Fold Sodium-dependent transporter.
Amino acid sequence: MKQRDQWSSKIGFVLAAAGSAIGLGAIWKFPYMTGTNGGSVFLLLFIICTIAIGLPILLAEFVIGRMGQADAVTSLKRLAQGRNWQFIGWMGLTASFIILSFYSVVGGWILSYLARSLIFKLDTVNHGELFNSIIASPVEVLLGQAVFMLLTVWIVQSGVQSGIERASRWMMPLLFIFFIILAIRSLTLEGAMDGVRFLFVPDWSYLTGSTVLVALGQAFFSLSVGVTAMMTYASYLPKEERLGQSAVNVSILNIVISVLAGLVIFPAVFALGQSPEEGPGLIFVILPAIFNQIPFGNVFMIIFFVLMLFATLTSSIAMLEIVVSTGIREKRNRRKLAAWVFGLLIFIVGIPSALSFGILSDVNLFGGTIFDFADTITSRIMMPLGALLTSIFVGFVLTKKQTDEELRMHPVMNALWRFLVRFVVPIAIIFIFATWIFELRG
């Protein structure tokens, strides 16, 4: 068997894995979910759920990937020893393919906003009308989606060290720097402390079962588990690296970026008299309007959308890598061709999602647009199901001896992690499923 590509360093792996997790979920979804679910109480629940639920399943995916030393499908086939568990890998690959097909559409929206901010076309417009016009324009959304996919393919086709790791080494530190700059600017606005209190001073009236459920879902999906991305990335990790520490680092980075996103958005929202409950339009509609009202606002707007582009690319790279890694197996000479072929196929599959707010807006699938349907089947069905099956596989198919040898943690920590993976994580995921089905029936 040919030598598997490997990360050149632990920090390269951690930054790439963190980049996979830190995407639109942390920067776009976390702020508006926090704003509509009580602020600080939601943040507290999100942190607890990330540590208790997200971290154990993240480590479980690391175990499978590093033990298997191959793409997710091959790794699961090797470790299952004749039992048919590789379908988890195929389901993760399919989910990644579908997610990237509509995720690239949002990446195109970000490119549209970035282009407008660079030529000062965002300072005298109605931002609600602008957003609606962008997503309804067939030419603009398809062009943006195509450029975004070209950027993703260009990075992935260069390989693990030359492409993914090198890009992550640049993009993740810049992401932190940009966030800190924006957070400082936001915190210096008059009235910003109201936003800080909203984010950090609990209002316990929001501590409800619904808030717990939403926080659990946000924590689960924000770590990018359930689509085998972390299995794929861990397969490039040398045996001497400690998985537990890497998983903790990725989880902490995810929490830190989410909190920084809150510190960028909520102080500015409160300082300028806006509502934190604006929902999904908070980023594309509210923030540009806020930037227009502060000195050097266009400069900070450019920085923000560059930051958004970096975060979105780090996640799209991971999703395309899942597909490419499975497609080429160990044949490195096929990487470039596979990256371009699969990138083109994903773009084609994503065209209906891109047009679902314009010429295909009348197409209704189970109560939503084509874009909504693709999001729902992946985020609410395929991802949690993949994570549930992964926890069962690691907890009940792999032996304690196998996982202990791979983890090399303190015996107490090994036992705690195994208990969480075998019992706490499956129960939590089943609870999410059951609640969602109950809501649908209601």
About this structure: The chain has a mean pLDDT of 85.
